[in-house]
Amino acid sequence: MNSQTTQLISELEEKFNAINQNTNTHLEGLLWSKPITYWDYIQTDALLNLQTQKTILPDEMVFIMYHQVNELLFKMVLWEIKQVCLCDKPTTKFFTERLTRISRYFDMLTTSFDIMGDGMEIEQYMKFRNTLTPASGFQSAQYRLIEFSSTDLINLIDYRFRATIDRNTPYSHAFEHLYWQAAGKDHTTGEKSFLILEFERKYKEEFLRYMEEYNTINLWQIFKQLPKEDQKDADLVAAMRHYDRTVNITWVMGHLNAARKYIGDGNATGGSDWKKYMHPKYQRRIFFPELWSEEELKNWGEDA
């Protein structure tokens, strides 16, 4: 037995002893284990069987797969955000690298809208979209979790109510005034649409837990915990600004423009006033307002 093998066995024994496991049992288990394959590791068969059409129209499959890819990328974004927010005293270098990864995922999402914008026949979309009602991309829970873990909650409150809400406001009350609540309510009666009622039935408790958990450990709070000198690091500030603009202007406008091509001034499948809900100049979604000048904040989304 060569020295490398001896060293590896020694390290394995140390690992298994630490968790009160018999090293020989685990080594014997290797005798009967199957070699890993790509399709088993990636779970290809399961992944490729998750697409279920509601109609016979071929382009509906494009729509389904595109949104599933979006959700996978959202999961990647959340994974990286957790690496930063749950890290004990992350370094500036670590923070910047992870934020660059996150931005890269959203850059990919932004440049992918041609798949929807140019990759489906309008005639087919206008037919199969009726079978989706009242479902809507508005109901992406992962996207909401990304928002909660990126910035202070006040920055996600409908700008009309921000002056009445602070850190002492109950989360349940703040939840009712999140910017996207306006897209799911009748402006004359104040009643919530079926779209948002179902969304809340499924995710509200998780959202409230997330709002509380990330209240003090969201990306902005972690940034403010860095040494003052590090908060001026040019690479980190550039990464923060790029992420903020990409998520809240570039990606949103890519989505908005793709929707405009297909439905023009029509209603969204969920019934929301999607043009005002989505356009950044109306709701002024800004994760890190302190990193932008007064002029930039004043004209947020105007050049989109």
What labels would you give this structure?
about 300 residues, mainly alpha, about 0% strand, globular
Q: What features would you describe in this structure?
A:
The chain has 16 helices and no strands. The protein is an all-alpha fold. The longest helix is centred in the C-terminal third of the chain and has 30 residues, at 234-263. The radius of gyration is 23 Å and the shape is globular. 59% of the residues lie in helices and 0% in strands. Helix 6 (92-111) packs parallel to helix 13 (234-263) and helix 9 (141-150) packs parallel to helix 11. The N and C termini lie far apart (66 Å). The model has no long low-confidence stretch (mean pLDDT 90).
Describe how the helices and strands are arranged.
Layout: H1 3-18, H2 23-32, H3 38-42, H4 44-47, H5 59-85, H6 92-111, H7 113-117, H8 122-128, H9 141-150, H10 171-175, H11 194-213, H12 219-225, H13 234-263, H14 274-278, H15 280-283, H16 294-298
Helix pairs in contact: 5-6, 5-9, 6-13, 9-11
Quaternary structure state of the chains depicted: single chain
Overall 3D geometry?
globular
Assess the beta-strand content as a share of residues: under 5%
Average residue-wise pLDDT: 90
Compute the separation of the termini in Å: 66 Å
- Flag low-confidence runs: none
- Radius of gyration (CA) equals 23 Å
Number of strands: 0
> By helix and strand content, what is the structural category?
mainly alpha
Helix content: 55-70%
* Order of H and E elements: HHHHHHHHHHHHHHHH
Number of helices: 16
Task: Note the main sheet.
Answer: none
